[in-house]
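ZP: hey, is the manganese (II) ion complex queued? I don't see it on the tracker
AM: it wasn't, my bad. submitting now with these inputs:
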Amino acid sequence: MPQKLVGITCSTTAGTATEVPRQFINRAYVRAIEQAGGVPILIPNLADNSMVERYLSVLDGLMLSGGVDVAPDYYDEAPHPALGEIDSLRDGTEMALAKRALESDMPVFAICRGFQLLNVLLGGTLYQDIPAQKPSDIYHRQSDINLARPEFCHSVSIHKGSRLAEIVGSCEMMTNSFHHQALKDVAPGLTVTAHAPDGVIEAFESPDYRYLVAVQFHPEETAVHDDKSHRLFTAFVNAL
Ligand code: MN
């Protein structure tokens, strides 16, 4: 059987006076899929969203990666002053990709921004800024305390009986954390499967689809040294 093809969504830079605009992805996403036995392919952000159909026609699975904030228009809110950078090209492409992938029951694994985007796509809402709207004594943006990307920042408790618990083989895991937004209202049809100690939602899944697992943390950065993180990628690739 040929190896399975995993589409990974990209980030874009707007460009500055000294730097041209770029589409890019952190190497860790590619490495994590590769080490799980999948074949990664990068999907750029497109001006013409009808092109997503052509990508989906060759993909076996879709991985929504991390990145900037989802535009609050998608959940009918005005921008909060602490809202971060927005990428409308990326919002459009990823919303179209995720919608069509779920409609065709293609397995989807979503990370960080991807986790938030899926919740919004399916009818949920976000806290636009955790420090302003849901203050916590836990750092969810570990760069604020100078922790590197592969380092752990906080624990999450995982719901017993969930697919996530089965995948990682535990009801507890350590995670890194690089988000200033969080899930507020959870979309209908999604089952929350993990919380941080302060109650912030850190994972969901859905029994309505063949494979839909989404996490707020970045297991692609910790998969090299943490078996539970690595298993999130092998479980996804094995489900394709
Ligand atoms: Mn967190």
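AM: back. The mean pLDDT is 96.
ZP: great, adding it to the tracker
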